[in-house]
# Entry
Amino acid sequence: MNENSVLHENSTLVGEDAAVAREPVATRRPRWRGWAGRVLPEAPPSPWPRGRLAVGYVVAFLAATAFQLLIPAGRSRWTHLWAEDGGIFLFDGVRYEFLTVITGPYGGYLHTLPRLIAEPVVTLLPPELVAPVFAVASAAVRSLVALLVYAASRAYLRSSPVRFAHAALVVVLPVGLSDPLGNLTNLHWFMFYGVFWALLWRSAPRVPVAVFAVLAALTSPMVFLLVPIALVRLLLPRARSVSAAFLAASALQAVAMSRTERLAYSGDRYEPMQVVLAALLRVPLAGFTGSEQVQHYYPAHGHLPLLVALLLAGLPILAALRWARSRSGWWRW
# Structure
């Protein structure tokens, strides 16, 4: 090979590199959209007729709501207000103006959805009806979150029974049938889980899901963990309105959190490893037994209940991932 041919080849390579560098952003953007589309796939159309599907959703909503209200722990909420429902939301609704209540943080963050429910209740209804209305409203919100999970998970869980079981956990898991049952105070846990699936739901109806995303972001202090999903969703056409609404509401929550103070639960030094270990020892077992029962299992059985809980939680997940890998490669990005 002579010197002229080498120079020619080098100049060709330099020209190609320069052409790539000069490639317009518009032509590179579809690559990002393709990646985002693999991360957030579209759900296949439902095999059920629309009318039959609507009836199924209504029946499931009524059954889930009734379950929460009629079990023994749920019936106790008909006559008693739980946690901050009475001491904060009811009291503030009686004492302060609507705008002051809605924009006022408590515990270091905004509680927009509970306050939106509490404000008209305490204004329009007699005191003896406040507790049952709070209980019904809380149960209804959880049921709606369960329905959202069922609908949004179609792109990831193709089996209808698996999706049904997954959505039912929002309502029937024991950890949600103690403190969080029948009160507005703990709705932020369920709203956070719901908005996680709402952001993954690429083909969601835009207006209602955007409203849900806003309410969740203005109610839960943990929504910032989901910002990366919202940013990926911005890359997709016809899916940006939900992300934009969620990010705007999250910014408002961040402003509110930065301008308020939260009393510390303890003066002990923060140790990240201890937090991780405590979560590992408590969360899996509490999910299956309820938070009040954890303190009884460890003294009696040691770490055996934890191992059982980890197996019950982990084996179905591993089996589902294995099944999904053999059936489809949607996550291979």
